[in-house]
Design a protein that fits this description.
eight-stranded mixed β-sheet; globular; alpha/beta; disordered N terminus; single chain
């Protein structure tokens, strides 16, 4: 008489065990199938009890791969949800400075109780429509955060850790008391495993060298940023992750460089030395080196290529001028203080500054203008048509006209993106239309431009074409 009761007790014990294991098992389909098979065998062994159960799997959120480079696509799916129901997918992460960034999107589940961000459309939140990576490029500072934040990776040897969660209904993540239905964590890296990072302090040059895995030799990239100063490593780390020996170079606003911090205190010899440090490295192909510059880094890239005495194989220029926006202090390219000349600064009704007028070709420091007709190599120039920090279209036009007149039009490639702003960076990273520029002598915010969705599309397309362009000229 006790046998039926023992069978039922055994059945419930087995079912309880597998219910508690369900979440972890679903991460590994192979193990999951194996355990399912064992469960079926065990039930047959205890008599094949028939039981009509209303058990349902718990909601599940997956992200694949859970660890990826910043420019790689992530597939996000929700399962085991009520069919045709409103849900919210939320992303949250902390910046290296400790600020909370977040994005969210409203979806309606399909008939099978699933949602797939690769194919389904957001109906509200941080973005609309089918945007598989919208939770990444749509990140914004959480409500109550400090003003004027811009997301920039400071430590490339650690990832951004992103918490993705499923919430019931169409809600906002600022409603903190909501308990997630399911969650998963992903890691986003600029630096691939086995990429080597080396700080360079040589012959007065300040920078960081990134080398891809393996013995090489590798094509090289000299990486130059703008007048924000400091040493910015994340783009160079990503180039190394894509097979390039990449040298991120500081040239102002760094403690190991001559002061003051608000002007360029190094000249042509400095950039020539930096180029040679990269070129002379035993794991770099000496005659396959490109230069990429953003903003003021565009002027420096053009200047290095035309007057410093080196011969790069190609240039990539993103939203910058063909001359210095600040008066030169000497013929070697050092500048006066950036804040000294404010004639062409423009302020909006909220007191935020735009530097766009400064970089109109007619407003550039005349003696600094690059002799574009001397350009020795192919040039890709990228324009954000909503750039509020540089007159990118006008500078691109001047380059194109000058090269055509010099019989070098074949060297010029232009990419132009409506709705994109100044800061065209690696893909799936959020744009800041406005950010804090300086604290002293007063707090100043600057306008970069760019609208979220078209800017994100520009970054994705431009990055692919930058890599293709560099491959064609550095891996020939």
């Amino acid at each position: 008489m006790l046998l039926p009761y023992l069978l039922y007790i055994t059945y419930f014990a087995v079912l309880l065990y597998y219910f508690t294991q369900e979440q972890s098992l679903l991460w590994n389909p192979v193990h999951f199938s194996f355990r399912r098979l064992n469960l079926a065998c065990l039930l047959r062994a205890v008599g094949g009890v028939r039981w009509n159960s209303s058990f349902k799997s718990a909601p599940l959120l997956t992200a694949a791969p859970v660890r990826a480079l910043i420019d790689e696509h992530i597939s996000i799916k929700g399962r085991f949800l009520p069919p045709h129901s409103p849900i919210t997918v939320c992303a949250q992460m902390q910046s290296d400075e400790g600020d909370l960034w977040e994005a969210f999107a409203h979806y309606n589940t399909n008939a099978d109780g699933s949602v797939n961000l690769t194919r389904d459309h957001s109906v509200g939140g941080s973005y609309l429509g089918c945007e598989p990576m919208g939770l990444f490029w749509g990140l914004q500072p959480a409500p109550g955060s400090r003003e004027g934040l811009r997301l920039r990776k400071k430590n490339v040897e650690t990832p951004y850790v992103m918490l993705l969660s499923l919430l019931e209904g169409h809600v906002s993540p600022s409603e903190r008391k909501i308990t997630p239905l399911a969650a998963v964590t992903t890691e986003r890296w600029y630096m691939a495993p086995d990429v080597r990072r080396t700080e360079i302090r040589q012959d007065g040059v300040v920078g960081t060298l990134f080398l891809p895995p393996g013995p090489g030799p590798f094509p090289g990239v000299l990486d130059l940023w703008g007048m924000g100063g400091g040493l910015v490593e994340y783009r160079a780390a990503l180039f190394a992750s894509r097979g390039y020996a990449s040298f991120s170079l500081a040239y102002l606003g760094h403690k190991d460089l001559p002061g003051p911090l608000n002007r360029v205190n190094v000249g042509d010899a400095y950039f020539k030395s930096a180029y040679h440090i990269l070129q002379d490295h035993r794991q770099v192909v000496a005659d396959r080196i490109g230069i990429i510059g953003l903003s003021f880094g565009v002027y420096l890239s053009l200047r290095i290529a035309t007057r410093v005495g080196v011969k790069p194989s190609c240039l990539v220029c993103v939203n910058g001028p063909v001359g210095s926006t600040t008066k030169l202090a000497d013929a070697d390219g050092r500048t006066e203080n950036f804040e000294n000349e404010q004639t062409h600064w423009r302020f909006d009704d909220q007191g935020r500054v735009s530097f766009k007028q400064m970089s109109l070709p007619a407003n550039l420091c005349p003696e600094s203008k690059v002799k574009l007709e001397d350009l020795p190599c192919p040039l890709m120039y990228i324009v954000g048509e909503d750039d509020l920090s540089a007159s990118s279209t006008e500078n691109a036009n001047l380059i194109e006209q000058t090269l055509r007149a010099a019989g070098k039009s074949q060297l010029f490639t232009r990419l132009s993106y409506p709705g994109a702003g100044h800061l065209i960076e690696p893909p799936y990273t959020p744009n800041s239309r406005v950010s804090l520029w300086s604290f002293k002598p007063r707090k100043l915010y600057t306008l970069w431009g760019g609208h979220p969705a078209p800017h994100a599309a520009a970054q994705q397309d431009a990055w692919k074409k930058i890599l293709d362009f560099m491959d064609s000229h550095l891996r020939r």
